[in-house]
Automatic annotation (TrEMBL):
Keyword Transport: no
Catalysis performed (reactions): adenosine(2503) in 23S rRNA + 2 reduced [2Fe-2S]-[ferredoxin] + 2 S-adenosyl-L-methionine = 2-methyladenosine(2503) in 23S rRNA + 5'-deoxyadenosine + L-methionine + 2 oxidized [2Fe-2S]-[ferredoxin] + S-adenosyl-L-homocysteine; adenosine(37) in tRNA + 2 reduced [2Fe-2S]-[ferredoxin] + 2 S-adenosyl-L-methionine = 2-methyladenosine(37) in tRNA + 5'-deoxyadenosine + L-methionine + 2 oxidized [2Fe-2S]-[ferredoxin] + S-adenosyl-L-homocysteine
GO terms, biological process: rRNA base methylation; tRNA methylation
Any one GO MF annotation of this record: rRNA (adenine(2503)-C2-)-methyltransferase activity
Extra remark beyond the main annotation: Reaction proceeds by a ping-pong mechanism involving intermediate methylation of a conserved cysteine residue.
Keywords: 4Fe-4S, Cytoplasm, Disulfide bond, Iron, Iron-sulfur, Metal-binding, Methyltransferase, rRNA processing, S-adenosyl-L-methionine, Transferase, tRNA processing
Keyword Metal-binding: yes
Top-level taxonomy: Bacteria, Bacillati, Bacillota, Clostridia, Candidatus Avichristensenella
Active site (catalytic residues): 89 (proton acceptor), 329 (s-methylcysteine intermediate)
GO CC annotations, alphabetized: cytoplasm
Family: Belongs to the radical SAM superfamily. RlmN family.
Superkingdom of origin organism: Bacteria
Protein's recorded name: Probable dual-specificity RNA methyltransferase RlmN
Segments forming a coiled coil: none
Length: 349
């Protein structure tokens, strides 16, 4: 059965034409799907067509399996179930300017970053564009409309390049969610060739690069991708993206005690970024017990921030959100898989 959300309006036109339906039906179906409706709810379609569509297509493909709400800040963590039984997760963060949804682009991840739980089980598979979109639509069904989207959940978006770009195009298609891509951030561990290709797509998303180090040696300790991609190569690609899109680049920097959080690290980072239109987002590390890494103390976070500001680097400290509901990427899915594994073992016993 096909995922209905994978299709563009033009593709629906072709599909429905093959079923003997008039062209205008494509816009109706596309609009209903993006409102979160299943085929039975599409009231302006003939009952016979609704029945045929339900036989051939899955109107959703992504359902909320569990929902956790932080008592600290109202952050919502979703555990989604896919049609094939895989689970992924997303985070709904509440801000005064509207809700932001963090979505996954893969089931698991193969990038192996040392501070991330998403990669602990490796990569199961990549998501289709409709499965990425389905997370947004499921969150919209659950509560009020999502205003901003960050591709910062499980997986590396640029490792699933074609489906990620297709998702971005679906987001702004007339009749659908029509989300401005300026309200979308794409987070990557840093794949220079793909960053350069993305710059040519005409998609004005904010590029958010997981940097997490001031030099190659420290970055290689934390991120396996850095063993084959130098910071000079990565930053050159970021400058290319900036030149092509006019969009400043965001650098994510998780402050890890004893690794990358000293003032001299801040000075080295500022030297690397000097003259570039960018912003540094400092992240107090959400602890991942399996990784054995600890976040920097608050005093170190503030000293790092001040060192960057003194060198004229735009910087903020990200507000910690969802710590009490396994807020770090991959933690909720990992806990679910562990509990399901334990349950299966007990049933065998």
């Amino acid at each position: 059965m096909k995922n209905a959300l994978d299709l563009t309006t033009a593709e629906w036109r072709a599909e429905l034409s093959g079923m003997g339906e008039p062209a205008f039906r494509a816009g109706q179906v596309f609009s209903w799907l993006h409102k979160g409706a299943d085929f039975a709810q599409m009231r302006n379609l003939p009952a016979s067509l609704r029945a045929r569509l339900a036989e051939r297509y899955d109107a959703r493909g992504v359902e909320i399996l569990e929902k956790f709400v932080s008592r600290q800040d109202g952050t919502v963590k979703y555990l989604y179930r896919l049609r094939d039984g895989n689970v992924i997760e997303g985070v709904r963060m509440r801000y005064h300017h509207g809700d932001t949804l963090c979505v996954s682009t893969q089931v698991g991840c193969r990038m192996g970053c040392a501070f991330c739980a998403s990669t602990l089980e490796g990569l199961a598979r990549s998501l289709s564009a409709g499965e990425i979109l389905g997370q947004v639509i499921a969150a919209n069904r659950d509560e009020m409309r999502i205003h901003n989207i960050v591709l910062m959940g499980s997986g590396e978006p640029l490792d699933n390049y074609e489906q990620t770009v297709r998702f971005l195009r679906l987001l702004r298609e007339p009749g659908g969610l029509q989300t401005s891509l300026r309200a979308v951030s794409l987070s990557t561990c840093g794949l220079p060739a793909r960053i350069r290709t993305l710059a040519e797509e005409g998609l004005p998303v904010t590029l958010s690069v997981s940097l997490h180090a001031p030099d190659d040696a420290i970055r290689a300790q934390l991120m396996p991708v850095a063993r084959s991609v130098s910071m000079d190569e990565l930053l050159a690609a970021c400058r290319y993206y900036l030149d092509k899109t006019g969009r400043r680049v965001i650098f994510e920097y998780a402050l890890i005690a004893g690794v990358n959080s000293r003032v001299e690290h801040a000075a080295a980072l500022a030297s690397r970024l000097r003259g570039m239109q960018c912003h540094v987002n400092l992240i107090p590390l959400n602890p991942v017990p399996e990784r054995g890494l600890a976040g920097a103390e608050e005093s170190a976070v503030q000293a790092f921030r001040q060192a960057l500001e003194a060198r004229h680097i735009s910087v903020t400290v990200r507000r910690e959100m969802g710590r009490d509901i396994a807020g770090a990427c991959g933690q909720l899915r990992r806990g679910y898989l562990a509990s399901e594994g334990a349950k299966e073992g007990n049933e065998r016993a």
